[in-house]
Amino acid sequence: MDGQSRRPAGPGGGPAPVGLAEISAPGGVLDRLVRGELPAVGAGAVWAVGDLGGVRGRGCSGALGQGPYASSEMRRDTLFDLASLTKVVALWPCAGALWQAGRLPLDEPLGRYWPAAAGRPVGEVTARQLLTHTAGMPLRTNLEALYGRDPSGIRAGLLAAPLHRPPGSAVEYTDRAAIVLGHLVEHLAGGPLAELAARQVWRPLGMADTRFGPLDQGQTARAAPTEYEPAAGGHLRGVVHDPSARLLGGACGSAGAFSTADDLGRFLTALLAPPPGLPWAGPWTAESLREQTAPLAPARGLSWLCAPGTDPAEGTFVHYGFTGTGIWISRRLGRWALLLTNKVHYSRETQPLTDLRNALRRAVFG
Mean pLDDT, to the nearest integer, of 69-78? Predict the structure, then answer.
């Protein structure tokens, strides 16, 4: 079920997506698609699509959760634990601000300009390799088991860890790359990532609901619950699901941010039509949303993944979050999409959500 109809070829040679107004109208293709597939996914959802003019269609469907949450519905203002979307909503633009200011060299080994990395294995890799997940870092995070609970000890352990393979030899997604890049960005910018993201990204775009956790009581009341945590005696809600982010105080380069569909729509619109004065939009977006890893696979840009099932030349990029979140962007087509769920609240079975994500991508981007 992908919501496509027969239509002429698009600029990349494949089928051209139909107009956003047609597919996103109430009761239209996307509404039917999401509502029809959610029972198999086992979670409620909030979705939206738009272009450089902003939101063109949106919808909500399903319950907020199970048990005590079953009587509450998903809403436009539901706050979601973004999980790894933090990498592109917080870390990626802050890195871009440094790059556009000439302070983050993408292809120089970290050890040449970051004293903490000098003489350590991570000093051999570059910022571009961190952003493309080609740095050769260990695949598993396991921060507490390896380095304890003290944030300074964790940071030292991450920098000193032997590389898993030579930098640039493979594309292997790992949270370690984003956590290390987050520490580098904080060093170069002279402040915590949470403050940098709020000042350079979220406040300028009017993303009033976007923040790192833990959330306050009022915000938690709007938050979608995630997974059951035995130590907490219940489902996590308003507290980041990712254990690495929890160890690091709730905020790091790989996870920790919470947001709503409306705020993420503002962010994605800004990638297509950046408002004046943003220190990271424009050139950084163009540099990032192109294939950087050929001939290695899977194809990636800077932080972003070339959407599975598409040719990298088509320019459709995506980023997913482990909790059940996802955002897509195409500069070629001038459109974006988002699908927010709290899938881990129910189970970690991924295939039904993967099928829905791929169907949504086909319907919006062809």
Answer: 97
Q: What per-residue confidence (pLDDT) applies to 11?
A: 35
Q: Does residue 112 carry a pLDDT above 70?
A: yes
C-beta separation of 136 from 167 below 8 A: yes
pLDDT score at 4: 31
Q: Is residue 213 within 8 Å of 250, Cβ to Cβ?
A: yes
Task: Say what the alpha-carbon torsion angle 214, 266, 274, 318 is, to the nearest 10 degrees.
Answer: 80
pTM for this model (two decimals): 0.94
